[in-house]
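Try this one yourself first.
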């Protein structure tokens, strides 16, 4: 009976190590996927920044076309404030 306990303890330890190795493998895979997703997020955020800038420029251009007198008046008042 004394030999069955060390054997079962050794087997339990080996099972635990195998489980740990499997968990670490899954963790490593998940971290790789997370890194890929962060890289894609960075690309998407850069594209969103560009898109937002283009939309802002379009909005300002349309606003200037719809009310050209106001746009000219704002530019003149801005020039007057600088001097």
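Now uncover the answer:
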């Amino acid at each position: 009976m004394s030999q069955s306990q060390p054997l079962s303890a050794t087997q339990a330890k080996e099972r635990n190590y195998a489980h740990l190795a499997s968990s670490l493998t899954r963790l490593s895979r998940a971290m790789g996927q997370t890194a890929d997703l962060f890289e894609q997020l960075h690309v998407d955020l850069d594209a969103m920044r560009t898109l937002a800038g283009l939309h802002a420029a379009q909005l300002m251009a349309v606003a200037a076309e719809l009310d050209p007198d106001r746009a000219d008046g704002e530019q003149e008042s801005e020039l007057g404030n600088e001097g």
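Discussion: The radius of gyration is 32 Å. The mean pLDDT is 87.
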